[in-house]
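Action item from last meeting closed. Structure (363 res):
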C-alpha cells in the first residue's frame, strides 16, 4: 500500500511542479488540489488493493515481469512502454503494484492541467471510469493519455512538428497497443481533409480517399490477423465472421455474463448489429440489462460520458472530434461484452476531454 502512495506522489509532484512552474496563484491552487486528489485516490486504491473490492486484472503484473526479466520483451512487446514509464518506481520499490500509483499520477496530472485554467473544467477528470481505471496497474490510463496528447497534436499549425509528433505517437502505440496506429493514421488523414476542405486540393481529397478505402479495404482481413484478400463489398461478411469468432469466446460459461443483449448480437445481421454496437458505446449497459451494482455504476458513467460528449461536440475542434468518431466506429465493430466496451471507452474519454480542453482553453 505504501508503494502506491510513493509512486503516485513522486510522479504527481514532479509532473505537477512542471505544469505549474509559472507560480501563478491559480497554478498553485491547481497543484494543491491535485495533490489532495493524489492522496485521496492513493488511499482508495490502497484500500481496494488490501480488501479486493475490485479484483486486480491478470495483466496487472506483465510490465513488472518484463522489468524483472521474467518475460522477454520479444514475447510481450506491447508492455514495453508501460515498463519504461514504471521503471523508476519498479526500481525503487521492487513491487508490481507501484504501477497503480503511476496510473493515479496520470489522472492527477490531467486534473492539474485542467484545474490551472478552470477548476470546474477539471471536475470532468473525476468521471467514474477514469477513477476506476486508476485503481489498477493496467495500460489503459497510459493509452488514454497518449490519445489526449496526440489529439491536441492534430491542432499544431506547423506541419513538420505535427507530423513528427504524430510519428512519435505511432511508435509509442506500437509499444502499448499497436492496432491504434491504424486509427491514428485514419485520424490524421481525416484531419487533412478537414483542414483542406475549402481549398482546391480539398476537392480532390474525397475521391482519392474513396479510391484508397476501396483498394485498402481488400486487405482488411490481414489487418485483423486473417488470411487472404477480399472484394470491398464482401467486407461486411468478413467483419461479421470475425466478430462472431470473438464473441463466441465470451459465452456465459466463460465469464461473458455481461454480453450485450445477453449474447444475442451474434444472431443479427451486420447492419442492425453495428447500429446497436455504436449505441452501446454510449449507453452502457442498456437500462433493461442492469442486473448488478457494477452494471449500475457503468450506467451512471455512461450518463457522464454522454454529457461530456455533448459538451465536447459544442466547442471542440472538428479534427479532434473526427479522431473521436474514427475511434468509436472502429471499436464498435467488435463490441460484444459490456465489460470490454467499458474498458475500450477510456481512450474515447480522453479524446472528448482533449476536444473540450482545446475548445474552452486553447481558443
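Sequence:
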Amino acid at each position: 500500500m505504501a508503494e502506491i502512495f510513493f509512486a503516485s506522489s513522486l510522479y504527481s509532484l514532479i509532473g505537477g511542479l512542471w505544469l505549474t512552474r509559472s507560480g501563478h496563484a491559480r497554478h498553485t491552487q491547481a497543484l494543491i488540489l491535485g495533490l489532495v486528489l493524489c492522496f485521496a485516490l492513493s488511499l482508495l486504491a490502497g484500500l481496494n488493493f488490501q480488501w479486493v473490492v475490485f479484483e486486480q486484472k491478470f495483466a496487472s503484473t506483465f510490465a513488472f515481469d518484463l522489468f524483472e526479466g521474467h518475460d522477454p520483451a520479444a514475447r510481450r512487446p506491447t508492455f514495453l512502454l508501460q515498463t519504461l514509464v514504471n521503471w523508476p518506481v519498479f526500481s525503487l520499490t521492487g513491487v508490481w503494484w507501484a504501477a497503480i500509483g503511476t496510473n493515479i499520477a496520470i489522472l492527477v496530472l490531467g486534473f492539474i492541467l485542467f484545474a490551472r485554467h478552470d477548476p470546474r473544467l477539471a471536475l470532468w477528470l473525476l468521471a467514474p471510469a477514469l477513477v476506476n481505471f486508476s485503481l489498477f496497474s493496467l495500460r489503459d490510463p497510459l493509452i488514454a493519455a497518449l490519445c489526449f496528447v496526440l489529439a491536441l497534436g492534430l491542432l499544431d499549425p506547423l506541419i513538420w512538428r505535427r507530423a513528427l509528433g504524430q510519428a512519435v505517437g505511432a511508435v509509442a502505440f506500437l509499444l502499448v497497443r499497436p492496432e491504434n496506429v491504424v486509427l491514428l493514421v485514419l485520424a490524421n488523414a481525416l484531419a487533412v481533409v478537414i483542414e483542406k476542405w475549402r481549398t482546391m486540393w480539398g476537392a480532390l481529397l474525397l475521391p482519392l480517399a474513396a479510391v484508397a478505402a476501396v483498394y485498402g479495404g481488400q486487405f482488411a482481413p490481414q489487418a485483423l490477423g486473417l488470411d487472404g484478400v477480399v472484394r470491398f463489398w464482401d467486407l461486411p461478411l468478413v467483419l461479421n465472421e470475425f466478430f462472431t469468432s470473438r464473441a463466441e469466446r465470451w459465452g456465459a460459461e466463460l465469464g461473458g455474463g455481461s454480453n450485450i443483449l445477453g449474447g444475442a448480437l451474434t444472431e443479427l445481421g451486420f447492419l442492425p448489429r453495428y447500429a446497436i454496437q455504436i449505441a452501446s458505446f454510449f449507453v452502457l449497459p442498456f437500462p433493461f440489462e442492469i442486473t448488478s451494482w457494477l452494471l449500475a455504476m457503468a450506467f451512471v458513467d455512461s450518463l457522464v460520458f454522454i454529457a461530456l460528449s455533448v459538451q465536447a461536440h459544442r466547442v471542440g475542434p472538428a479534427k479532434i472530434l473526427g479522431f473521436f468518431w474514427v475511434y468509436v466506429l472502429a471499436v464498435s465493430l467488435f463490441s460484444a461484452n459490456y465489460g470490454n466496451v467499458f474498458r475500450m471507452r477510456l481512450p474515447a474519454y480522453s479524446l472528448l476531454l482533449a476536444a473540450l480542453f482545446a475548445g474552452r482553453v486553447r481558443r
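Note appended to the action item: Residues 32 and 112 are 9 Å apart (CA to CA).
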